[in-house]
Automatic annotation (TrEMBL):
Organism: Suillus luteus UH-Slu-Lm8-n1
InterPro entries (alphabetical): 6-phosphogluconolactonase_DevB, 6PGL, Glc/Gal-6P_isomerase, NagB/RpiA_transferase-like
Gene Ontology BP annotations: carbohydrate metabolic process; pentose-phosphate shunt
EC number: 3.1.1.31
Listed SUPFAM superfamilies: NagB/RpiA/CoA transferase-like
Lineage of producing organism: Eukaryota, Fungi, Dikarya, Basidiomycota, Agaricomycotina
Keywords: Hydrolase
Name used for this protein in its record: 6-phosphogluconolactonase
Entry's Gene Ontology molecular function annotations: 6-phosphogluconolactonase activity
Amino acid sequence: MASLHPPPSPPILYSFESPNELSENLAAFIVRAQKEAVDKKGRFTVALSGGSLPKQLNKLIDNPAVKWDKWQVFFADERCVPLDHEDSNYNLCRKELFSKVSIPKQNIHHIDVSLLDDLEELADAYEKALISEFAQKDSARFPVFDLILLGIGPDGHTCSLFPEHPLLTEEDRWVAYIEDSPKPPPKRITLTFPVLNHALRVVFIAAGEGKADILSTIIDNPQAGLPASRVTPSHPGQVYWYVDNAASAKVKYHKSEFKL
């Protein structure tokens, strides 16, 4: 009997000579994904991470093809701190991207900081924000993001999903909280694997030789079960890796040079 859930497609890896070339091609990919989503349903749903990722979106800032008013932006994970705190992913994205473009403030869905003292309530409120955007419009069991942009940690974590943590087995919640993150700050909320694995496109971005060892493990040895390896959306979902040659130097998996 055929499976009701088609197996995930193998990841597509694009490796570029420099971080600048990576950013240029990533921007072009995002613009194409935006056009497809806006043409189909009039909006573009995106989840962003923090770390070095916001800086790598700089080629979008002056791109006239970006329709910022059509973007609905959520956060793949967030640290449970005030919005102006240096650890806040929202604050980082605001500094690097939002403050430089014309995206409406109401299209940026940040955490409710009045709930920082109750992580369960904070996660529930963020899940309700997702339900408001997705369930009422798409009638899906889980949200289907047009695009989720992720980074990777040196231990193979992504979002705030860390190796061997109980959250890796979460199957029902859209948003979960964590009080014992091995990387500070300890209190966070995060999208769960069911959400990541229902996305149309998940793009991991990695640059620099410091990512070489963990990148080769994630891609060439997925059976190791690192969190980033577990992001495997079923068809038509697809995982892409946008990396530079320094990061992919130890990867054995076939690499594609992607040119516009």
